[in-house]
Specification:
The protein is mostly beta strands. It has one helix at 2-33, and strands at 35-56, 61-62, 64-80, 83-100, 121-139, 144-165, 193-207, 211-222, 237-254.
Length: 255
């Protein structure tokens, strides 16, 4: 078991390396045959994140909702036929985590005997997230609408965490639950560095001397785990997944 999990870790690092190499090679290829651009813009972004954690053993969940905000930098380097090629980077504060779906054997909510309401548990984990995208767009460059897709690696640095529950974690009635995995309640995040792959699509509307307005949706799949995953550890997998809806405003520095 240990060797399998270590292999998964090595595969994750290899995946990140392959993605970064692909981005560099792709942009390098465009730069050799495309029309050169040297446009730099910076700005701010904000949005909403739906997140969960992929546990093994499985923990049933609904999406955890949280906010994200930060700064964005976009560098347009080439136009290859109709494709506008850019690099886009962000530094964001993100509130993510998981929200459990606590059911009984009849797939009904477990009712807390002390309060008479359904039991709930959620964990909020705050990160600084840093995605770096190859950004490909089609449409109007100066004024009007573009459609874009983007993909690349994302890295996260743990800040802090908190939990919210309406039952005594020390006195859980396991017999009332369809899922008996409760070890996570007493475990804080063990790995403070997160990494994975993000990809998304959206639209950009540009107005000369005003700026660029971007609306997008993206998905992030974590390749690392928040808990240790050796043979002696409880969880074999505990990776983060995010769905992000975001708006960005950029203004030109170089054009």
């Amino acid at each position: 078991m240990t060797s399998v999990r270590r292999g998964n870790s090595k595969q994750s690092v290899k995946t990140i390396s392959v993605v970064m190499a692909f981005l560099l090679v792709s942009l390098s290829s465009f730069s050799q045959i495309g029309e050169h651009r040297n446009d730099l813009s910076i700005g701010v972004n904000g949005g909403y994140i739906l997140s969960n954690v992929g546990f093994t053993p499985k923990v049933p969940q609904n999406f955890h909702g949280g906010m994200t905000m930060g700064v964005s930098v976009k560098y347009v380097c080439e136009k290859y036929f109709t494709t506008i090629c850019s690099l886009l980077g962000e530094i964001n504060y993100a509130s993510i985590g998981w929200k459990e779906d606590i059911k009984n054997a009849q797939e009904q909510p477990v009712i807390n005997t002390a309060t008479g309401v359904a039991e709930k548990y959620s964990r909020t984990i705050n990160y600084i997230q840093m995605p770096l995208f190859a950004h490909l767009a089609w449409g109007k460059e100066e004024r009007g609408m573009q459609f874009f897709v983007q993909a690349g690696p994302q890295f996260g640095l743990y800040l802090n965490e908190s939990s919210d529950s309406n039952f005594d974690i020390e006195k859980i009635n396991i017999d009332d639950r369809s899922n008996t995995i409760v070890k996570q309640y007493s475990m804080k995040v063990e790995r403070k560095f997160d990494y994975g792959i993000a990809a998304g699509a959206g639209v950009e509307y540009s107005v000369p001397k005003v700026g660029h307005f971007l609306l997008e949706a993206r998905y992030y799949y974590g390749l690392g785990n928040i808990y240790h995953d050796s043979k002696r550890d409880y969880f074999g997998k505990s990776n983060i997944g995010n769905i992000v809806m975001k708006m960005t405003y950029l203004f030109d520095i170089l054009h």
